[in-house]
Structure formats: C-alpha cells, structure tokens
Design a protein that fits this description.
This protein has about 375 residues and is α/β, with parallel strands linked by helices. It has helices at about 5-10, 15-25, 45-60, 80-95, 100-105, 130-140, 160-175, 195-200, 220-230, 245-250, 255-265, 275-300, 305-315, 325-335, 345-355, 370-380, and strands spanning about 35-40, 65-70, 110, 115-120, 145-150, 185-190, 215, 360, 365-370. The protein has a five-stranded parallel β-sheet with strand order 2-5-6-1-7, with helices on both faces. Strands 3-4 form a two-stranded antiparallel ribbon. The protein is globular. InterPro entries: P-loop_NTPase.
Length: about 375
C-alpha cells in the first residue's frame, strides 16, 4: 500500500465525543443542550465529518431519527428550502413509498394520511404546511425522537426566510418537548464562525436567545499519533514519519485534517528519502506561508478605507458598529487626510468588501469577517 492510499483510507473516530453530545441533547449530561447544541469551529477542521460519521450514527444507534442538512451544499438555494427539503426526504424515507425502485420509474410524490401531498421535486413545503408541522409529521411516522442537524447554520441568517426558518425550528422545539420528559426534537447547529453562530443566541430578538455556543473540540495529538501509525505501516521500517513532526505540521496547517492528508500524500514520491519528517515540516511551512501570502495579496488590493474597515473589524471587542463614533475615529486614525471619510464612503467600502466575500452581513445588519484566516493574519502582522 502507498503512503497516499494509507492516508486516504485512514478515518479517525470520536465515539466518546459523540456520546457526550447525545447525552447533552437528551438532557442526560453535565452540558444541557436541550435548547439546542451550537458548535463552532473554522472550516475544514473535521466538523462535518464528525457529524456524518460519529454524531449521526451514535444518535441512530440510540433509536433517533436523524435529519442532516448542509446550508452550504447549495448556496444559490434559500436556506429555508434546504431545511424543508431535508425533512421531506426523511419523511419519504420513513413513509416507505419512495424507494430506489420507485424513484427509478419517476415517482416523486407521496401522499400521507390521505390528504397531505409532498412533491420531492419541488423545493420547500406545500402552502400552509410549516416546518413545525413537518417535524411533527416525521416524529409521528418514525415513532421515535428526531435530531435535526443544520451544518453551516449561520447561512440561514442571510435571508429573511432563512431567519424565519430558525424561528420555526425554535417553535417546533418548544411545542414538541414537554418539560421533564426526554425531548422529541433535538437541534444541532454548526458554524464556521463562533461570532456568526452567536447571532442566533446573543440577542433577545433572536430565536435561540439564552442558548450558548460551544467551541467544537479540534483534533489534536491523539488524532495525529493514530494517523502517523496508520501511514507508517505503508513505509519502510527505516523511513518512518516522526509523530512529533506530524503533530507540528498539523498545527501549522490550522488543525485541518484534509491539508495534513494532502501534505502526506505529496511526500509519497519521497518514500526512499531518510528525511520524510523534515520534508513534512517544510511543506507545512509552505502551506501556512501560502495562506498568509494570499491574505496579504488580497489585503493589499483593497482601497485604504477598505483596509481600515477590516483592520478595525479584526481588532474589535464585542459587537462591531461600522458607523459608530468609535469606529469612525478608528478609521480616521488609519487613513491619510486625503481620503474622504463619511458614513456614505464607509458604506461603499463595506459593500465592496461584501462583494468580494471578505466580510459577511447577517439579515439584521451585523457584520463579520468571512474568513478567520484574515483575522489571524491581521493580528499576527500587527494590523489589528
């Protein structure tokens, strides 16, 4: 077996973490997540893999019906429709009328209780049917508790209907879960930004006010040690990867498993070299430097006012108010006197940054930097 094959086939399981989260969702653990489990971590650190390969199988082993939807799977579609479609598909699965054979002959509609028709080819729910009713229907058909997992849930805040879907899920949770009983509906939301996900819980005007955002535990030394052992089985005895070097490389690429696997696959051609660990460290530095260079290049392509806006955003403490007195004063301190500064010019700068996907706006007007690599680079380079 080659290094690249061993790297690709390796899967790290986190059963204890999955059990702990399930206990929190059902109200059995020290962490009580019956109001909702909100997990935040940057992209590509293994959140979605954990959800699909650990959390959902553990929940299903407990007898729960699970629904998974990734709001970034189709960013052109409305988040509310993606959530509704995922619930519809699970209803069809339990209803038993849309099998592979039925789909093969074009069957796309199911009729439930003689009256409700769900068309699997049309986005969203039928007129007059709410997410609450759809979840109640799923619970009734499945005859088991339901766990709904919404991956990249912060994307729901980008449209009014997406935000209304969050309110609908909160209403369904309140209606389906009776105090003191095991919950019939459990909600899991993940986000690639703690700040963005926190918009759902930090204000009394938001649907899940009072809940808390939990940092998703990043993979660490246990993962890299097991991974190194797996890869070393494909290497000559005198040409082994050093576990310490693998862990250091993993940290340099931001604890991202995919990037580590890519690095290890890239050194497959150097299997006969006695310096695999040295090569791994060097390549990890190159990946880290490439990320910083891309951010630096994009930053330097911005106008002075656009640069000032992202610098102030990255250095903010608490909620960022782009037109507040403190922010306007901070912009002015970073700008030459020749650059005009007003609420209109700041708005134009923000609009341009949004167009380039550098900053993000949720439907109620709060702004965040889209990629946390920007925040890290701005702070490390002394610009924030």
């Amino acid at each position: 077996m080659s290094v690249s094959a061993a790297s690709a086939r390796y899967t790290f399981r986190r059963p204890c973490l999955a059990v702990g989260f399930c206990e929190a969702l059902s109200g059995e653990g020290l962490l009580d997540a019956r109001s909702g489990l909100f997990l935040a971590a940057q992209r590509r650190v293994g959140k979605s893999t954990f959800l699909r390969e650990d959390l959902i199988p553990t929940a299903e082993a407990r007898g729960w019906a699970t629904v998974y939807v990734d709001l970034w799977s189709d960013r052109a579609s409305d988040p509310a429709e993606l959530i509704a479609d995922a619930i519809k598909q699970k209803i069809a699965e339990f209803h038993g009328l849309v099998s592979k054979a039925a789909k093969a002959i074009g069957l796309s509609k199911i009729t439930i209780a003689g009256s409700l028709s769900l068309d699997l080819t049309v986005p969203g729910l039928p007129a007059g049917v709410t997410l609450h009713q759809a979840l109640e229907l799923l619970h009734g058909i499945a005859k088991r508790p339901v766990m709904l997992v919404v991956d990249e849930a912060q994307h729901a805040l980008t449209t009014p209907s997406g935000l209304q879907a969050m309110y609908a899920l909160k209403a369904a949770r309140d209606a389906m879960n009776r105090s003191g009983d095991a919950p019939d509906l459990m909600l899991v939301f993940t986000g690639s930004s703690r700040d963005k996900l926190a918009h759902l819980v930090m204000s009394a005007k938001m649907p899940f006010y009072g809940s808390r955002v939990t940092p998703f535990p990043l993979l660490g030394r246990e993962f890299t040690d097991e991974y190194t052992t797996s890869v070393n089985r494909a290497l000559a005895a005198d040409n082994q990867l050093d576990p310490v070097a693998v862990f250091e490389a993993f940290e340099m690429v931001g604890n991202r498993p995919e990037l580590l696997r890519s690095l290890v696959a890239d050194i497959a051609l150097a299997q006969e070299s006695p310096n695999l660990s040295m090569r791994l460290r060097a390549d990890a530095y190159l990946v880290q430097d490439r990320v910083w260079q891309e951010v630096k290049s994009d930053f330097e392509s911005l106008t002075p006012l656009q640069q000032a806006v992202v610098r102030v955003m990255a250095s903010k403490e608490g909620q960022f108010s782009p037109f507040g007195e403190a922010s306007m004063s901070a912009y002015k301190a970073l700008l030459p006197d020749t650059v005009p500064l007003s609420t209109a010019t700041v708005q134009n700068a923000i609009d341009a940054l949004r167009e380039r996907d550098i900053i993000w706006k949720e439907s109620r007007g709060a702004y965040e930097i889209e990629d946390q690599a920007w925040v890290a680079w701005l702070r490390l380079s002394g610009r924030a």
